[in-house]
Amino acid sequence: MNLLFLQDAALVGGDAALAGGLMALIMGMLAVFLAVFAVIWIYVSFAYMSIAKKNSQSMPGLSWVPLIGPSIVAFRASKMHWWPWILIAASFLPIPFLAPIFGLIAFVFIIIWNWKMLEAIGKPGWWAIFMLIFPIYLIMIGIAAWSK
Q: What 3-state class would DSSP assign to 1?
């Protein structure tokens, strides 16, 4: 009976080690994800800040606002209407069938803003279509920001 108890205790200890290892793996992956996200955010913010300066915007620091900063810079460079911001805000509504529709419409406006922003700094507007693919977006936004 004592031997059976020791085997059960070893199994429980093994499960704890496995759980600890799994937790360490998850935390490590989270740290890597956050580091990559921070590097991309800093790169994109610097690029849009440079674009805002090229476009002579009064507040290029708006590019540092997380998640919507680049859209603010593109919106201000495109000199379009303000009402699509309502669609962007509405895309976060907890209404299951309306939020995706508003989000898709807002996505189209963000592409239009980027198209007009690229034209405002002397780059071809059709680059905005290629910017839908994320790695190409990073390259194109860098070229748009720091080329002559």
A: coil
